[in-house]
Amino acid sequence: MKIALPTDAPEAAGLPPASMQEINAARFYEHSLLPALFSQYAPRVVAAGGIRAGHRVLDVACGTGVVSREAATVTGDAALVTGIDISPGMLTVARDACPTLDWRPGDATDLPFADAVFDRVVCQFGLMFFSDPVKALEEMLRVLKPGGRIAVAVWDSISTAPCSAGMYEVLERMAGTRAAEAIRQPYRLGAIAQLEGLAQAAGMREFEIRTHAGEARFPDLRVLMDAEIRGWLPIMGVHLDEPLIEAIEAECARRFRDWIDTSGALRTPTSAHILVAVADGGTES
């Protein structure tokens, strides 16, 4: 059953309980990965979505809320922004960071909202992980008002991310294909033709895809290793023992030395695509 928007209900639903492991992982994401990778793209997604004052905005796969918070600075009213995510830990940290926004648990392939209730729908770096990306895009379009706009960001191909490409090669050689493929997963929609095919399959008649350059900025190699090897791989079901992790880190330090500056910070190029489309049935608002 689809539910009303929070502004139409007397009280927003509570969040599901999160384990300390989930919360700690979300805190690491918020405090380490956002400044290193994700924060720089949030204003670009908000701008691509054409978000303006007074718009009702849905942020799908909101994580800890970096795009939701950015959108709220534009709408002029935090209550107009709803962030939805399947992870209780991410939502708990999102609510702690900004309790005035509306945070909702939910699956991107079955959004718990009525048809045509949002002016804008955004999604930053979530589409690659959905069980059915076409269904998720269809759901985003369904909850969008006629003439509303959607903006969805995905990472470019792994070849545009030198550290991830290098780590893929190191892991394939030292830890096996399964570990290496986990590193490739975030880049699986990096081919523009593939993203175009998803948009067309979801019923988007007119859309555009633009590529945006950025930069990964990790304070040191250890933060990157904690994020990828000790953080991301276990989420993907790949667990490596500590001696192997240390050997991988040593090899990465050798391979990435040209990307490490005099302060010890690791800085490498990144690239992302942003898909923008307007819902049928009305003049863009």
The helix count comes to 10
Structural class: alpha/beta
Counted up, domains total 2
CATH class of the largest domain: Alpha Beta
Topology, number of strands? 7
What is the end-to-end distance? Answer: 28 Å
Q: From the alpha-carbon coordinates, what is the Rg to the nearest angstrom?
A: 19 Å
For this structure, the CATH topology of the largest domain is Rossmann fold
Largest sheet: 7 strands, mixed
Which terms would index this structure?
single chain; 285 residues; alpha/beta; Rossmann fold; 2 domains; seven-stranded mixed β-sheet; 10 helices; 7 strands; 41% helix; disordered N terminus
Structural summary, described in words:
- This protein is α/β, with parallel strands linked by helices and about 280 residues long.
- It folds into two domains: about 15-155 and about 190-215 and about 270-285, Vaccinia Virus protein VP39 (Rossmann fold), CATH 3.40.50.150; about 155-185 and about 220-265, no CATH class.
- The protein is about 40% helix and about 20% strand.
- It has ten helices and seven strands.
- Helix 9 crosses helix 10 (about 240-255).
- The longest helix is centred in the N-terminal third of the chain and has 19 residues, at about 20-40.
- It is globular.
- The two termini are about 30 Å apart.
- The model is unreliable at about 1-10 (pLDDT under 50).
